[in-house]
Request: fold
Amino acid sequence: MRSRCFVGSLLLGFALTSHASDEDWQLLRKAGAAARQVTLSGTYLHQTPGVLETFLVARSGNAEIYRAVDGPPREIVLSGNERVVYAPDRAALQRARVDAMRLFPSMLPDDISNIQQSYSIQRLEADRVADLDCVWLLLRPKDNARYGMRLCIEQESGLPLKSVLFSPRNEDVELNSFTELELGQLRDRNLLKPHLAGKLSERWHKLPVTATVEPAAPVSGLPSGFRLVKSALAAMPGDKGGEQHHYMFSDGLAMLSLFVEPSSGNKQAERVAVLYGPVALASRDDGDNRLTLVGDLPGEMLANLIQNIRLGKP
Amino acid sequence: MKESVSALMDGEIESQEEVSKILGSMERDETLESVWEEYHLIGDAMRSNSLLSVDVSQQVADRLAAEPAVLAPSISRRRRAMPAVPLRTWALAASISFAAVIAWQQLRGPAPQAVTVAQQPAPVPLPSERDSAYLLAHQEMVSDPNLMKASVSEVRH
Reply:
């Protein structure tokens, strides 16, 4: 009888845990959508090694603006299928290009359907960020090959108010946190107007998916959980003409690019570099090809990965 | 009667009738009620109860002035104030509590930590032109995997 009670208790406990976990994944999905859609205006802090900067952000509908408060003036304006970066000079423009890749609060990929394969989720304690109540969700990798993330989510809207990316050694490598935030309709539509519109600008037009191509060759050697999101032929700026294959993989949180291009005549050394904050690069020659990996994965992970990755025959 | 109160506190009274009798006496006699509180206080203190936050300094001072002997209870009473539990039982309880705390911390994972703010953030190390190209190509697909960059134009207004 006792053993039956014990087994029953275990099953009940398992069922309750599973239910709680489902709710947590649901909250994460809500956070991913809210991060892209919620109308808001506010200020957030972005910190990563060597970087401590503040942005004003305002969003209404599909119009969105990010204005750097620290460092060289620069603005990033998103609207529909266009992105424009404004800055007074080329150096600031380059800085803005880099800023544009880590915009908060939309830190989660669009598609997180496969995230459960590589990460576990756990709800931690309640907290308060920018005068709003939120609850922490912990995304912990199931291996030591990738970063984990903590998100403090405002439960009503689902908006992430704070995010922390942490390494396998449990060191924080990137933080974003609202310091002021107003949710709902903008009090002033002028918030969406760029201040630097008369300065140097770079306009990024986007086209529909027609440019997507079938992968040139199957890729193996990736860590478990990564799957191909898209592949395309890309002409690299600054390249001497020609195109290269660009594969994009995702495990539901980390995004990983593989560039495959013909090797230049001279054999190039293998190398690993941190490009920006948690984003690293690793490359090596593989026969007639030069393989380059770029992604928000730990540098040592990319160094191992570049050794193991293989291109099959088309 | 104080001995009865002490025995009640220690759970040594088994007869319901006796319990009712002692409780009735405490209701009628404020002195007995204060004895009840006093014994609990002593027990809490000796068990290092973290909830002990009662400010009794004034009461203690008054009592010391009036009848100092009351706060020097006999050895037997002091023993009763803290149930006579073998040391190994306390050690076992402490071990279980410690294990439970460690297990809970492991299950909960790391608490959100404040990121150490760099005293003087170094200037942003911008990647080289070539690496920037990879970075930006990566970024373009990350930011919107359903669409892709078609052209880049740089204009001066």
About this structure: The radius of gyration of chain A is 22 Å. Helices of chain A lie at 2-37, 90-99, 299-308. Residues 226 and 250 of chain A are 5 Å apart (CA to CA). Chain A has a mean pLDDT of 86.
